[in-house]
Amino acid sequence: MKMSFCIPVSQQRPDALGGRYVLYFVYLDGFLFCKVRYSQLHRWNEQLKRVFGNCLPPFPPKYYLAMTTSMADERRDQLEQYLQNVTMDPNMLRSDVFVDFLKLVQLDTFSIATKKASLDIFLPDGRSIKVEILTSDTAERVLEVVSHNIGLCQELLGYFGLFLIQFCKEGRLSVVKKLADFELPYVSLRSSEVENCKIGLRKWYLDPSLDARLMDCRTAVDLIYMQAIQDIEKEWAKPTEVQRQQLEALQKEDNQTKFLELAREVRHYGYVQLEPCSCDHPEPGCQALLSVGNNEISCCLTLPDNQTLDVTFQMDRVKCWQVTFLGTLLDTDGPQQTLNQNLELRFQYCEDSHWRWFVIYTKQAFLLSSCLKKMISEKMVKQAAENPEMKDYSSFLPRKSKIKMAEVDCGLGTIKEDL
Question: Is the separation of the CB atoms in 203 and 160 below 8 Å?
């Protein structure tokens, strides 16, 4: 699936010869990822063409005369579409020419040199392990180093991910974002403006039944067991009183297998819970607590009269969604490091045979969007496994008739996902 790249703003800068060039501010999942010039992207595209031929998406052409404002806006839109479309091919995402360029522009943007460094990776139980890395190591590489240190089976790496996590007061934590495989964790952590932010290892799947695939690896079981305990302590998972007593007894016995079997019956087990936010359903101004997982969006709503209402939206009835940035990106120091203020995610949902839009106002809109895409991806993999005529699940990946991902209106900072 496409990555949530966007280029909502650009700036003209003077060059060494007295001329001017345009610097594009590229954001990924709402955070500043890099700053690049057209010429850099053009050279990168030429390198990709030598490896992948004509299967690349169209790249915006050069202009040999001065650009008008409308031409400049059109180029920015085209570059944005290019970055989104070029991430569709998983082979391209894993290629050296793709990854090496993105590593370079991340380091250059934040003025970080390649060198040896130590990085603390936090486990779900709050403990951390220190790994020795290079500042230019990608999240995929750091995850491999972590897995080697803790004994996690290599074939299970795809079920886990590295996350930016904010550790808040009173023991609360908030998942800020999932790091993409080609992101540099050291750079992302250093450049983050989120207070008390750390890099954490968590499972990265939202279908609780996938636990079964990890049960033969002792370290994997340890990790999901730690996370289950943490999620219950943080009240992300919500056991009944009877379930809580049974789980506490199993925890005292250190019976991880039985604990996890029972935990999978707990409401919201394995879900990602977002920070309190607001929405327009069933009326404007409602406060909401969202939990996302198991092919649904579960909402605990507080109405203006302080009554509470539980509402669940099933993913198979969601037609599309879009993330929109509602504010301005410019402040006195230039473009902001993050878009995660004044964000909304709206989705089109079939209710009583009618399509209607629901709007959620949350600074974690991009994380929510990532979770929705993850649930769709897991469903496609399951469908492919159930269909013997399909050789691999790539046949279920975005097609014009099925999923049209990431159409962006830069003027409003809108990213749209169509199912």
Answer: yes
The structure tokens listed for 38 are 């057209």
Percent of the chain with pLDDT over 90: 72
Contacts of 83 (CB under 8 A, 6+ apart): 3, 5, 7, 26
Whether 408 shows a pLDDT value over 70: the answer reads no
Q: Identify any residues that bridge with 6 across adjacent strands, giving them in sequence order.
A: 27
Q: Residue 135, Cα to own-chain centre: how many angstroms?
A: 21
Q: pLDDT of 43-67, one tens digit each? A: 999 999 999 988 899 999 888 777 7
- Cβ 30 vs Cβ 369: under 8 Å: no
Q: Encoding tokens for residue 410?
A: 């830069």
Q: Give the CA angle between residues 309, 272, 152 to the nearest 5°.
A: 155
Structure tokens at 124: 């779900």
Q: Which DSSP category does 402 fall into?
A: T
Structure tokens at 96: 């050296």
- Distance CA(40)–CA(104), nearest Å, equals 11
Give yes or no for a contact between 34 and 21, defined as CB atoms under 8 angstroms apart.
no
**pLDDT value of position 335:** 64
Query: Residue 95 has what DSSP assignment?
Result: S
Cβ neighbours, 10 Å, residue 357: 14
d(CA 389, CA 95): 29
Q: Which residues are registered as beta bridge partners of 358?
A: 347
pLDDT band, very low/low/confident/very high, at 333 (cuts 50, 70, 90): low
Beta strand pairing call for 343-351 and 318-325: antiparallel
Nearest to 351 by CA among 317, 310, 391: 317
Q: What integer pLDDT is reported at residue 411 of this predicted model?
A: 36
**What distance in Å separates the CA atoms of residue 121 and residue 124, rounded to the nearest whole number?**
10
Q: What number of other Cβ atoms are within 10 A of residue 249's Cβ? A: 13
Other residues' Cβ atoms within 10 Å of the Cβ of residue 213? 14
225 Cβ contact partners less than 8 Å away, ≥ 6 residues apart: 256, 259, 260
Structure tokens at 414: 């809108």
Q: Is the pLDDT of residue 395 over 60?
A: no
Per DSSP, the residues of 2-39 read ---EEEEEEEEEE-TTS-EEEEEEEEETTEEEEEEEHH
- CA-based torsion, 322, 323, 327, 331: positive or negative: negative
**For position 361, what pLDDT does the model report?**
96
Q: How far apart are CA 308 and CA 367, in angstroms?
A: 25
Q: Confidence class of residue 165 from pLDDT cuts 50, 70 and 90?
A: very high
